[in-house]
Amino acid sequence: MSEEIVLMKGNEAIAHAAIRYGVDGYFGYPITPQSEIIETLMEEAPWETTGMVVLQAESELAAINMVYGGAASGKAVMTSSSSPGISLKQEGISYLAGTELPALIVNVQRGGPGLGTIQPSQSDYFQTVKGGGHGDYRLITLAPNSVQEMADFVDLGFRLAFKYRNPAMILTDGVIGQMMEKVTLPPSRRRRTEQEIREQCPWAALGKTPERKPNIHTSLELDPVIMEKNNERFQAKYREIEKNEVRYEEIQCEDAEYLFVAFGSAARVCLKAIEMAREEGFKVGLLRPITLWPFPCKIIEEYAKKVKGMLVVELNAGQMVEDVRLAVNGKVKVEHYGRLGGIVPTPDAVLEAFKEKITK
Amino acid sequence: MNKNDIVSPENIVYKKPELMNDTFMHYCPGCSHGVVHKLIAEVIKELGLEDKTIGIAPVGCAVFAYNYLDIDWVEAAHGRAPAVATAIKRLNPDKMVFTYQGDGDLAAIGTAETIHACNRGENIAIIFINNGIYGMTGGQMAPTTLPNMITSTTPRGRDVRMTGNPVKILDMLIHLDGVCFATRHSVHTAAAVKKAKKAIKHAFENSMAGKGTSIVEIVSTCNAGWKMTPVEANDWMVENMFPAYPLGDLKNV
C-alpha cells in the first residue's frame, strides 16, 4: 500500500499503522475505549497480506505474556488496552523490562480508580512513568496529541524499543483514541524475514544454531552480586535514553511570559486556551512533553528562568505537575489545573484557572 | 586395566544426552525432574529439532530448566507459559515450541492460560509435572495435592471441605477440541521411562505436524517435599497418586 490520506479515529490509525509498518503480531483483549484497535485489525485481516498475527487473547494477562513470548523471538509485537486492563499487564511489562525485550504497549486511558469510567482521563501518568510493575525499571513513554501522532508513534515506539531493548508505551486517552482527524498513513513496509531478525537481533530465541550459545530470556538471578550488576546495566541504559530521547514541542514560547505544560488531549485544550489568553493580553506559551519518560526536565528548567509562572493542565488530580515542580525546583510558581473522573476541561475553564492561580 | 581401557566406544552402552549441559542440577536426589529433562533432550536430538526448538520454562522447581538443556529458552511468569508459547509458535510456525510446567503453575495460577491455549488448539506441547506439592517454595499445598495429604500449608492434611478436591486438569482438558493428545505417565521404573519418552516424542511430533495441543502429564515424586526417601516416595506414588491419577492415554486423535 502506498501513502494515503484518510479520515479516521485515533484507535483505527494505530491499527492501520501497525499493519503498514510491518508489525509482526498484535495480542489484545477488548476494553472500552480502545476496542477499535483489535476490531480494525480483525476487519483488515493482515495475516492474509503481510502475515501479521492478530489474536484475541483470553485476558490482558495472557495478551501481555503473548507479547513477551513474541518479543523473545525477536518479533515486533504489540498489545493495547485501557487503564483497568493496563493494570493487569503490569507484571508482564516488568518482565519485559527485566529481560530487556522490545515491545509496544498502547494505553488508551479512561478514568479510574477501579473499573472507573469509560470516559477519557490521564490518571495513569504515575503508573506509567513511575513504575507500575515491580522493580527498578523505566518504560519509554510517548504521548500523542493527534490522530497523526497515534499512527507515527507506532513506528517511533518500536524504533526506540528495539534500539534500547526496552518496552515502550503509547500513553494516550479516550479523546485521542475516539476522535476522528485527517491522518497520513505511511506506505507499507514489509515485515522482517527470520534471517534479518537473526542478524539484527542475535539475542532472539528462534532455535539455537551450532555457531552460537543458547539464547535464554529470563529475569531471574538468585546471586545478588550479579542481580545488582544487571540492575546497574538497566540503569546505565535508562541514563542513555534520558540523554538521547527527550522529545517535546514548544508552541508560542518565543515571547511567552507564562507557560502551560500539558500532554496529549490536555495539550489540545491548551492550544485554544493560549489563543484566548493572548486575546486578553497574556503572553502564554505551551510546552508539550511528547516523551513523558524520559521527561523534558532541562527545557522546563530553562523556562523557569524566563517565565513568571506555569500552569500544568492534566486530566487528573495532579501527577505530571510533580515532575514539573522537580524540574523547576522552586524557581517559579507552578500550579495545577485538572478535571477528574472522565471530565475534559474546556479552554474557558483552563483560562479561568490560569488567571486565578497564576496571574493573581 | 585402567578406566580408559573400559571406556572405549564399543563398550559404551549409555551416555549423557548430547543436549544436556555439563552442569550441576539443583534438583533433589530422587526427584523426577532430572529424568524428564533427559527424555526431552533425547527426543529433541532424535527428531533433529535442536535448531528449531524453543522451550518455555515455568516458575517452580523447573524454573532453571534453561540451565540444563542446550536449546533456546524463554522463562515465563508464573502460570503464563502457554500464553508465551502461543505467540512464539504462531509467529514462528516452523518451530517446535513446548512448555514445561509444574502442577501449581499449570493447574492453579495458570489455569486460564492452560485451558485457552488448549481450546485454541495451539500447536504446542505441554510437559506437565504433577507431584502434588509446591517444591520450590518448600512444600505447600498444590491444586493436585491428595485429600488428607500433609503439606506445609495443610499441616493436618488437606481438608477437602476447606480447600477443595484435587484438580484433575487432564480429565478436564480432554473435552476441548483443540487437544489432540493427552496422556499420563510416570518415570519411576525403566519401563515407565520408556513409555514416557514415547509420549513426549509423539507430543513433539504433533507440534511439528500442526495437529493441535498435546499434553503429557508425568505423575512425579517430590521425596524432599513429601519427606520420604526416594524409594519410599516411589512406593507412596504408586499406592496413592496412581489411583487418583491413573496412567495411560486419555485422548489420542
Supply database-style keywords.
heterodimer; A: 360 residues; alpha/beta; Rossmann fold; 2 domains; 7-stranded mixed beta sheet; 5-stranded mixed beta sheet; 13 helices; 15 strands; B: 253 residues; two-stranded antiparallel sheet; 10 helices; globular
Q: Can you walk me through this structure?
A:
- The complex is a heterodimer of chains A (360) and B (253).
- Chain A has 13 helices and 15 strands.
- Chain A has 360 residues and is α/β, with parallel strands linked by helices.
- Chain A has 2 domains: 4-194, Thiamin diphosphate (ThDP)-binding fold, Pyr/PP domains (Rossmann fold), CATH 3.40.50.970; 248-359, Rossmann fold.
- Chain B has helices at residues 3-6, 33-46, 81-91, 103-109, 111-120, 160-163, 169-173, 190-209, 223-226, 230-244, and strands spanning 53-57, 72-75, 96-102, 125-130, 133-134, 140-141, 179-186, 213-219, 248-252.
- The radius of gyration of chain B is 18 Å and the shape is globular.
- Chains A and B meet through helix 3, helix 4 and strand 9 of A and strand 1, strand 2, helix 3 and helix 5 of B.
Q: Kindly state the mean pLDDT of chain B as a whole number?
A: 96
Radius of gyration of chain A: 21 Å
Number of strands of chain A: 15
Q: From N to C, what is the helix and strand string of chain B? A: HHEEHEHHEEEHHEHEHHE
Short synopsis of the structure:
With 360 residues, chain A is an alpha/beta fold. Chain A is 42% helix and 20% strand. In chain A, the strands form three sheets. A seven-stranded mixed β-sheet of chain A has the order 3-2-4-5-7-6-13, sandwiched between helices.
What's the arrangement of secondary structure elements?
The complex is a heterodimer of chains A (360) and B (253).
Chain A: E1 4-9, H1 10-20, E2 25-28, H2 36-44, E3 53-56, H3 60-72, E4 77-81, H4 83-98, E5 103-109, H5 125-129, E6 140-142, H6 147-164, E7 167-173, H7 174-178, E8 180-185, H8 194-200, E9 216-217, H9 224-244, E10 248-251, E11 258-261, H10 264-279, E12 284-289, E13 291-293, H11 297-304, E14 309-314, H12 320-328, E15 333-338, H13 347-359
Parallel strand pairs in A: 2-3, 2-4, 4-5, 5-7, 6-7, 11-12, 11-14, 14-15
Antiparallel strand pairs in A: 1-8, 6-13, 10-12
Helix pairs in contact in A: 1-2, 1-6, 3-4, 10-13, 11-12
Chain B: H1 3-6, H2 33-46, E1 53-57, E2 72-75, H3 81-91, E3 96-102, H4 103-109, H5 111-120, E4 125-130, E5 133-134, E6 140-141, H6 160-163, H7 169-173, E7 179-186, H8 190-209, E8 213-219, H9 223-226, H10 230-244, E9 248-252
Parallel strand pairs in B: 1-2, 1-3, 3-4, 4-8, 7-8
Antiparallel strand pairs in B: 5-6, 7-9
